[in-house]
Write a sequence for this structure.
């Protein structure tokens, strides 16, 4: 019994790191974008386009790293498109996001059709469990390279937002576009940059799906990670470090179902798939109030009140 | 004297009626100009895209028209696809009038479809006739869909939770619930390849509208749009809703029960989405399974935005979008294009139409500059104002 519990805990840990990686990248990107006062709901499309591009380029060049880079670049393009569209007057950023989501997913399925049968090289993983005789521990500590990159990026985003002039300008634009304008900053340009970088991150997050886990390219690859990242950012109160923690928590909640299934608890498997969403909703409900805005929330963010 | 007044009045009326009609027509045409331009622009961009990958765009346009509006058969196919879109679009459009951005149509549709199938099968197994089964199916689906989306509205109204995020999360929870019940407790043991709930029975399915190959779901969609328009434009509820969308502080100061109206509007929107799910079950699948997760909910969000949250405008927009979807089969077979081709075109079209909102803005500014009266336009999609 206790061996089973340990197994579940290890599987949840390993699964948490594995599942959380795309969430981490997309939510870090969305965090930057939202800090500038705009919501990009189109990251679902960016994610799927990133998955397709990363897989295609890795297949053609035999290098997963070039695939990741290409995925990021395509993500930036889509982010740039979102920013340019939203910079027009009277254009609703939530609606543009959903349009880009449908467009990105459609385009990825369209271009990526021949890739379904192709085999691309996988991303390498770091085996941090070499010391352990237990195979469960070893497989749980197979840390993929992108997760490590994500940890580094989290630190970089924290420094960027809190310790640099760039970050200050970005936050100013997100808090009060008028103040930023009065200081001579081009609000739309700052938001363009923030959305382009956010798209780059989301594209990389997508390439993880096709190049590492679950791996391969097919039309059911994404299960809404791009949309969920938007909720995760709110959940994380627009803080990069909390984005990391929220992604891990979300990943762990997602890994609970498969982990329990692996030890023979199959009833309610699909119900456990709802766990991350229920958890997110519960925490958002518990911390929200009609009296005040959430802490850390950019005041210019239209969708958040 | 009295007779004189009388003739005078009637002459004014007869003069005014055609003038008003002309004015309405002129305004309708002016309102249609921009979205039609966007439609043409999107088709052009799509044509360039097709030319780049080595296809003849003119042939593709021709086939698309044939597959969507060109023949009676394809037009009926278009209407079949438009029907659920009308209903899911209302899930966003009705709360949209209060300035809310609700994405919950997908979840309302999925959960509405699931419970509709369960209620229908239960009625059938108790030996009830087709009318009772159909009534139970549709009613249950609609009410459950309404309650589901209204949870998002209530969280917004009473807890200050952002309704966009809440309804988004509810969608995923609804899909997980569907999978759980279809694969587990409610699975029909006879459904082997595709886990489904117990069937509601072929004899209890919704039939086609007489003379058409289109089921009654289309009538439900059209009726809901008309009712939605009447509700929003001609009733006290609609007036209050639009007032909240325009300025929530003014609405509160006037003593409007803002929180209750938010819950009611999201309930009505969800009612439509749930009905869409119930119709899918009762007219097409006959049971609830993974086919209920169609993405109609998200397409409906965009239909609502393109229709500028106007329930009446939802009808033509749904038909155009349904037509693009219907043309997909022909493109797939005739040109060996992936079925995602129409999704690409839909994406381009949505982007073009949303971008054209900018032009609407310009036209309005110009009109404002000309006329002495300020043209006060409520912006129903500004989410920022609702803070119950």
């Amino acid at each position: 019994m206790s061996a089973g519990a340990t197994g579940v805990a290890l599987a949840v840990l390993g699964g948490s790191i594995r599942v959380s990686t795309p969430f981490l990248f997309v939510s870090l990107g969305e965090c930057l974008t939202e800090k500038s006062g705009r919501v990009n709901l189109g990251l679902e499309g960016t994610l799927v386009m990133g998955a397709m591009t990363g897989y295609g380029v890795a297949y053609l060049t035999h290098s997963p790293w070039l695939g990741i880079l290409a995925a990021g670049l395509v993500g930036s393009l889509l982010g740039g498109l979102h920013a340019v569209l939203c910079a027009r007057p009277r254009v609703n950023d939530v609606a543009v996001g959903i349009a880009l989501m449908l467009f990105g997913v459609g385009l990825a399925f369209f271009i990526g059709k021949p890739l379904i049968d192709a085999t691309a090289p996988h991303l390498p993983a770091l085996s941090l469990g070499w010391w352990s005789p237990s195979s469960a521990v070893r497989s749980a500590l197979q840390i993929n390279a992108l997760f490590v990159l994500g940890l580094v990026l989290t630190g970089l985003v924290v420094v960027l937002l809190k310790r640099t002039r760039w970050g200050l300008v970005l936050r100013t634009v997100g808090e009060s576009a008028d103040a930023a304008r009065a200081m001579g900053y081009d609000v739309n340009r700052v938001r363009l940059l923030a959305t382009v970088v956010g798209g780059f991150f989301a594209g990389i997050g997508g390439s993880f799906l096709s190049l590492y886990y679950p791996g391969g390219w097919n039309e059911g690859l994404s299960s809404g990670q791009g949309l969920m990242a938007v909720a995760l950012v709110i959940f994380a109160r627009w803080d990069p470090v909390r984005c990391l923690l929220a992604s891990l928590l979300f990943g762990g909640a997602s890994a609970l179902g498969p982990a329990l299934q692996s030890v023979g608890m199959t009833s309610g498997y699909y119900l456990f798939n709802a766990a991350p969403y229920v958890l997110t909703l519960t925490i958002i409900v518990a911390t929200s109030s009609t009296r005040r805005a959430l802490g850390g929330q950019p005041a210019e963010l239209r969708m958040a009140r | 004297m009295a007779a004189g007044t009388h003739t005078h009045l009637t002459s004014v009326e007869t003069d005014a009626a055609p003038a008003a009609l002309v004015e309405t027509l002129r305004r309708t045409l002016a309102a249609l100009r921009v979205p039609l331009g966007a439609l043409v622009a999107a088709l052009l961009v799509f044509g360039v895209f097709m030319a780049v990958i080595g296809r003849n765009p003119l042939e593709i346009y021709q086939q698309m028209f044939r597959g969507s509006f060109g023949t009676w058969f394809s037009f009926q196919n278009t209407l079949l696809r438009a029907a659920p879109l009308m209903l899911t679009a209302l899930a966003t459009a009705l709360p949209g009038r209060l300035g809310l951005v609700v994405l919950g149509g997908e979840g309302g549709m999925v959960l509405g479809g699931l419970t509709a199938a369960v209620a229908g099968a239960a009625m059938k197994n108790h030996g009830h006739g087709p009318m009772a089964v159909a009534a139970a199916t549709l009613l249950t689906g609609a009410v459950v869909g309404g309650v589901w989306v209204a949870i998002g509205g209530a969280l917004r109204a009473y807890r200050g939770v952002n309704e966009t995020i809440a309804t988004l999360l509810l969608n995923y929870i609804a899909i997980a619930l569907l999978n759980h019940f279809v694969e587990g407790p409610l699975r029909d043991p006879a459904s082997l390849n595709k886990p489904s709930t117990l069937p509601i029975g072929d004899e209890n399915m919704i039939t086609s509208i007489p003379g058409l190959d289109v089921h009654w779901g289309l009538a439900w969609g059209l009726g809901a749009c008309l009712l939605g328009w009447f509700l929003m434009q001609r009733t006290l509820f609609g007036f209050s809703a639009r007032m909240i969308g325009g300025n929530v502080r003014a609405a509160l100061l006037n003593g409007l029960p803002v929180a209750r109206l938010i819950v009611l509007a999201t309930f009505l929107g969800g009612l439509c989405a749930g009905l869409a799910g119930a119709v899918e079950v009762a007219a097409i699948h006959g049971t609830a399974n993974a086919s209920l997760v169609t993405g109609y909910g998200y397409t409906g969000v965009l239909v609502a935005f393109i229709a500028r949250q106007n329930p009446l405008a939802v009808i033509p927009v749904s038909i155009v979008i349904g037509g693009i979807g219907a043309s997909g089969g022909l493109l797939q077979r005739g040109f060996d294009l992936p079925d995602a081709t129409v999704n690409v075109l839909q994406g381009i079209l949505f982007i073009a139409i949303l971008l054209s909102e900018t032009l609407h803005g310009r036209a309005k500014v110009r009109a404002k500059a000309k006329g002495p009266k300020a043209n006060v336009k409520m912006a129903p999609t500004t989410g920022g104002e609702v803070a119950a």
In short: Residues 2-52 of chain B form the longest helix (51 residues).
